[in-house]
Amino acid sequence: MDRNAPIGVFDSGIGGLTVAREIIRQIPHEPMVYFGDTARLPYGSKSRDTVIRYALQIVRFLKTQNVKAIVIACNTASAYALEAVEKEADVPVIGVVRSGAHMAAQVTRSGRVGVIGTAGTIKSGIYRDTIQKFRPETEVFGKACPLFVPLVEEGLWHDSVTEEIASRYVSELKGKFIDTLVMGCTHYPLIRSTLRKVMGENVTLVNPAYETAIELKHMLEEKGLTCEKTPKEKYQFFVSDQAEEFTSFAKSILPEEVKETKKIDIEEF
Amino acid sequence: MDRNAPIGVFDSGIGGLTVAREIIRQIPHEPMVYFGDTARLPYGSKSRDTVIRYALQIVRFLKTQNVKAIVIACNTASAYALEAVEKEADVPVIGVVRSGAHMAAQVTRSGRVGVIGTAGTIKSGIYRDTIQKFRPETEVFGKACPLFVPLVEEGLWHDSVTEEIASRYVSELKGKFIDTLVMGCTHYPLIRSTLRKVMGENVTLVNPAYETAIELKHMLEEKGLTCEKTPKEKYQFFVSDQAEEFTSFAKSILPEEVKETKKIDIEEF
Predict the structure, then answer these.
(1) Which of A167, A220, B28, B47 is 20 to 30 A from A157 via CA?
(2) What is the sign, positive or negative, of the torsion defined by CA atoms of B163, B169, B175, B179?
C-alpha cells in the first residue's frame, strides 16, 4: 500500500464536504480524492438496494484513483452500504455512522440519545443499532428531518423558517429527555447554531464529521499509512453532474482553495 | 399505429402524477403507462446533458411498452429534452411546457406573465421562449422555487411555513405586476390554494398539467388515435426505485385505484 496515496471520500453530493473540511483541519498534509454523486442525489429518500448499487459504483471509481482508504461521508450510504463497500474495497473503510455512534455512546450521561437524519438513515435504524453495540443499555430516539437538506441548500442556515421547522422536528425528541443529539446527516453541521438554539444548552450535539476525521487520523497512524510526501495536486474533486455549482459550494465550505471539479459518468463503473 | 395502445407518461418521480390525474379526468377510457424516475429524482437541480440522457433512457423503455404517444410530464425534462425525445421517439410527443406556455399567452391581458419552477426549468428560459413564440411582445418573469417540491413531499400543502416561503418567492413577481402565473412544476398544483392566497385573486394561475391533458385529447382525436377498446389493465406504473412509497403517494393523488407499481432498472435502457 502506498502511504502517499490519497484518501477517498464520497458522498451523495455536497454534504460530505463538511466531512472533507474536518479531515483537512485534522490532517492537513493528507491528499484526498472527493467524489459527490450530484447526478443522483439525494440518497436519503432512496432504497437500500439502490444506495448499495450507487456506493459500489463509486468504490470502483475510487479504486481507479488508487486510494489508500475510503471514507463514506454520506450517512445514508454509511447506513445501508458499509458492509458492501468493505467487501468491494481492498483498503480500510470508515463510515460516518460508526464514528458518530461511538462518540454518542461515550458522551451521553443519561443514556438517552436522539438522532436526526434523512428518512433513509432513520428508517435503517443504523444509529440505534451501532450506539447500542458500544453501549447496550442506551435508549435511542430517531427523527427523520427531510426538509433540512433543501433548507441548507437554499442557504437558509440562519433563518426563521429553518428555526420553525427545526422546532417542529425536535419537539418529539425533547419530550424524550435526551441529553445527546447526533447530527446524523452531513448537511446538519451547517445549521448547528439553529439546532443548538432549539435544543437548548443542556444537550450535547455530536458531529459525526468531526469524529470521522479523528478516527481516520488514528487509523492512518496505526496502520502506518500517514502521508510522508504530499503530492502537488493535494485535493481532487469529482462529481457526476453540476461541476461548476459544486466548485462554488465547495469554496464556501472548505478552508483550502478549490480549483476545479471534474465531471465523470459514474454509471460506467 | 395501434390506437388501443397506451399513452406513455414520464416524470422524474411523483410530480407527474398531477398530469396523469388530469389525463384520467379528461380521457378516462385511455390506457396509460406511467414511469417515475424515483432512483434519480429530482431533475430540477441537474444539468441539461444529464436530464437529456435520463429522458432518452426512459423513452427507450416506453418504446418497449409500445406506447402510441409520449407525454413529458416533468417540466425540467420538457424544458431540456423535448427535441431529443422527439428525435428518439417514433410517436407524437407532448411536453407540459408547450401546453402551459400556450395557455399563458392566451389568457394574459397585460402581457406580463410570471413563471415559477425548479432551478433547471427557470434557468433554461424555456417558458419565456415558448410563451414569446405564441405571443412575441409578452414580458415573462421567472422565479426558481427550490423549496416547494420538498415542502409538498413533506405533506405541508396547507401550512404556515409553505405560505411564508411562497410569500418570499413570489414577492419579486408581484413587484412586476404580472396578471398570469404559470405553475411550472408538476408539484405546484398541490399547493394551489397557498399560491392563490399569496398572489391574490387578480392573478390567473395556469396549470400546465390540465392544459397538457386537453392538448393530448385533441391530438389523439386529430390523429385518429383515440382508444376504441380499453384493455383490462388500463393503468400501469413503473418506477426506478421506491415502488411501495410511489404506490401510496399515487393513491393519494389519483381518482382511480392504483394496484401496484413495478420497479425496473432504467440504466439498462
Answers:
(1) B47
(2) negative
Q: Name the average pLDDT for chain A.
A: 96
Between CA A18 and CA B223 the distance in angstroms is 56
- β-sheet bridge partners, residue B144: B117
Contact A146 B164 (CB under 8 A): no
Residue-level pLDDT at A209: 97
Which of B47, B153, B242 minimises the CB distance to A242? B47
Cα(A126)–Cα(A119) distance, integer angstroms: 12
Contacts of B160 in chain A (CB under 8 A): 164
Helices (H), B47-174: 48-64, 75-88, 96-107, 119-124, 126-134, 148-153, 160-174
Checking ipTM against 0.90, whether it exceeds it is no
CB contact under 8 A, B153 and A146: yes
A197 touches chain B (CB under 8 A): no
Q: Would you call B145 a catalytic residue per the annotation?
A: no
pTM over 0.80: yes
What's the Rg (C-alpha) of chain A? 18
Q: Which of B20, B24, B52, B74 is catalytic?
A: B74
> For residue A247, is pLDDT > 90?
yes
Are the C-beta atoms of A210 and A94 separated by less than 8 Å?
no
Beta-carbon contacts below 8 Å between A and B: 47
Domain with CATH 3.40.50.1860 in chain A: 7-95+210-268, 98-208
> In the structure grid, which three cell numbers stand for residue A247, read together?
466548485
Nearest to A153 by CA among B152, B157, B118: B118
Contact at CB, B146 and A154, closer than 8 angstroms? yes
B164 vs A: CB within 8 A: yes
A145 is catalytic: no
Fold adopted by B98-208: Rossmann fold (3.40.50)
